[in-house]
Amino acid sequence: MLRKLDQCSPIIAGDGTRLRELFHPDRDYDFTSPYSLAHAVVPVGETTLKHRLKADEVYYILTGRGMLHIDNQSLEVEPGDVVDIPPGSVQWIENVGENELTFLCIVSPAWRVEDEEIL
């Protein structure tokens, strides 16, 4: 299966992140993997809302610089960084750079609205 980012509809996630969902087993007939994959954008100077997921999440940073907060830990992230966010962790990310912060989000099991709590 091939997906073109610009052909995926943009949405605003519950935490305020601009997302394009690339693969999701509940929305793609031929995609049967247990995870979902989304492309996320946080504009310059913006911060997502604090939230937690019941699922495991991995961020792969593509562009920009951010400060990722996971529970009581803060990590500066930049292109090429990969971060695992354990299930149940309070998390949010802020764009601390001069360009858009973009990253891939892998959620396993696949993201579901009922598995996310906005704080």
Structure description:
The protein has 119 residues and is mainly beta. The chain has one domain: Sandwich (Jelly Rolls). 0% of the residues lie in helices and 48% in strands. The strands form three sheets. The chain has a six-stranded antiparallel beta sheet, with no helix packed on it.
Beta-strand share of residues = over 45%
Mean pLDDT: 95
Main beta-sheet strand count, sense and barrel state: 6 strands, antiparallel
**Which value, in Å, is the CA radius of gyration?**
14 Å
Summarize the structure.
With 119 residues, the chain is mostly beta strands. The chain has strands at 10-12, 18-23, 36-42, 51-53, 56-63, 66-70, 73-77, 82-85, 91-95, 101-108, 116-118. 0% of the residues lie in helices and 48% in strands.
Could you name the key traits of this structure?
119 residues, mainly beta, Jelly Rolls, six-stranded antiparallel β-sheet, three-stranded antiparallel β-sheet, 11 strands, globular
Layout of helices and strands:
Blueprint: E1 10-12, E2 18-23, E3 36-42, E4 51-53, E5 56-63, E6 66-70, E7 73-77, E8 82-85, E9 91-95, E10 101-108, E11 116-118
Antiparallel strand pairs: 1-2, 2-3, 3-10, 4-11, 5-8, 5-10, 6-7, 6-9
